[in-house]
Amino acid sequence: MFHSARIKLTLWYLLIIMTVSMAFSAIIYGFTDREVHRFATMQRQRIQERLESDKFFFGDRPRVMPHIMEISDEELITEVQSRTLISLGIVNGIILLVSGGLGYFLAGKTLRPIGQMLYEQNRFISDASHELKTPLTSLKSAFEVFLRDKKPKLDDAQELIQESLLDVNRLQHLSESLLSLAQFEKPHDPHIMTKVDLKKSIESTIKKVRVLAQKKKIKIISELEDLSTVADQYSLPEIWMILLDNAIKYSPENSTIMVILKKSGNYAEVHISDQGIGIAKKDSEHIFDRFYRADSARSKQKGNGFGLGLAIAKKILEHHSGSISAENNSPKGTTFIVKLPIKKV
Predict the structure, then answer these.
(1) What is the pLDDT of residues 141-173, one digit of tens each?
(2) Domain count, the chain
């Protein structure tokens, strides 16, 4: 599909370029033809004038230009015309070849973003369909098994409902994540930017996740400077929530999570470090891709998500002209580094 579209676009480029080239060639040929005829006419007039003024050579004989000279002029005009046509043909042939190569190259450059967008869209649909299919299949199977029982018990029904609610919650979480990701993938989606106290924003998120951390006896230590910037006050906490939730999820019990907020030049840097299992080198380049989950112990943790959280965090930061990166700690653990430009109202 992409190759055929590229060929078609190249042909359209060639059609436009060669139409312009042939039009210019026609203008050049017409101008050259007129100039040659004008020059030949002027030459005949000059020769005729010299003949009329030459009394020694002609005497009393009629002073008329020999017919042989008129024939030579016509032959010269015909030769100039044919040479002009050949030259224009060669030039247009060169233009055709060069334009074909350049047109094919430019068509590829033009269609590459569209092809990438279509690939991402198809991959997104495929991955989303797969993620939706898993809990739906689980729900369907559970209900079918329950309905086959001729004498269902109340306890079994309650257990089925509880298990089904887990799958429903999973579907709800997936749909919310997809909507959030789609919102931040809009190229010109307006967001209300206001002054945000980064320290308070992070502290508020830490309070929300502290209950989850306490269940695993994880201690969250924070060192936060008083920094503010202009940002979307509703989307920034989502970044801290995603990163802290991942840190808790992949950290062992009785470990520590470190949260640091500091100024670095014109940027505010947020470091969130855990003492978990880290990220393999082969996975580090893809952890911010949609639906990507590492083929390591991280992907086998209980309650593993859909691989959308870090992709959402990256999109939010791109809307704020910021960035996010990850690096492994020594001897173990991961540090996520968020950079936000410090803007004033």
Answers:
(1) 878 877 887 777 777 788 888 878 877 877 776
(2) 3
